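Ticket #4471: structure output looks truncated?

Reporter: J.K.
Steps to reproduce: submitted the chain below (148 residues) through the standard prediction queue, then opened the result file.
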Amino acid sequence: MDTTTGTLRAIWLKRMRRGPMDAVKRAVLKAQQGLVGNTDQGGRRQVTLLEEEVWQALMAQLGAILPPSTRRANLLLSGIRLVNSRKRVLGIGTCRIRILGETKPCERMEAVCPGLQKAMYADWAGGAFGEVFDDGEIVVGDRVRWRE
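Returned output as attached by the reporter:
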């Protein structure tokens, strides 16, 4: 499988800390802030990303059926690998996001599915977080690719 390009499969916005994840078809990224309308703004964790294939593998490993929104990431990507991508720049539509690190799973993952938190520690299975470089709109279905 080509893991240099992929697709933006889902976008979720979180209205408040520990609040629900609202699925949207399109969203606006603001440079150095994150997703407009998302509670987490600025700082290092401006946007969080998860791989669809990794989530599916976790569910199969644990014998669970939970939607990827359970992970509480903002963006679900398909066809592109995030493992060891620190400092790489990801293009989504016309926007760029620099990956700053791996998103470590919290105790909330264990609460929704026993064994999930531990399983997510392997190979960046909890996803990644990054900082937004560009203002712009992203839409479910946008092409995702590594920008070198």
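Triage note (M.O.): checked the attachment and the full token line is present. The radius of gyration is 14 Å.
Status: closed, working as intended.
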